[in-house]
Amino acid sequence: MRVCQFRHLPTGQDGFAKLNVPFYKIIDGPGPMAPPKKKEEPDKKVVASNRKARQFYEVLETFEAGLCLLGPEVKSLRSGKGQLDGCFGREDSGQLFLFNFYIPPYQFTTADPPDPRRTRKLLLHAREIDKIAGKLQTKGLALIPLEVYFRGGWAKVLLALARGKKGPDRRDDLKKKDQAREAEKSFKGKYRG
Predict the structure, then answer these.
(1) Which of 9, 86, 123, 152 could make an S-S bridge to 42, C-beta 3.0–4.6 Å?
(2) Which pTM value belongs to this model?
(3) For the chain, what is the largest distance between any 2 Cα atoms, rounded to a whole number of angstroms?
């Protein structure tokens, strides 16, 4: 991009401008009106994860939702406490809720601490709620939280629309992992450059 930068005309001893000197200079570069830089997406700080979810469920689709929390719950989550074991989502009267999500009481709260396993509302757009609710009507699908994290100061939960794995499915997955691990071990020392 080429930009013109104007400057004052040099004057001679008589006080008049010298006309043989250019009064502008062409500069290559972004110039004073450079396009604004894109803001980088804030990093996410994971505070709780459901490790067994991928072991017991086949994840079909994931969604990001906000969490409706009280002040002491946010403080407790920021300190890295929270458990997703046995937690699930369900649609009720056109809204999605997260059941059985354990957030321990914040120790420095002055008011009455909220119930650690209370039902928490999930914050999504109406179209997303309708889409998820329609898919939950299918037999065998469940709404499972994979992880809870903070992004840009807001508490978020990564939800998965998942189907439960049966015993043989889990054994097949374990067998595939073992085979991949064995193949990786066998190639590890052979092809070093």
Answers:
(1) 152
(2) 0.66
(3) 98
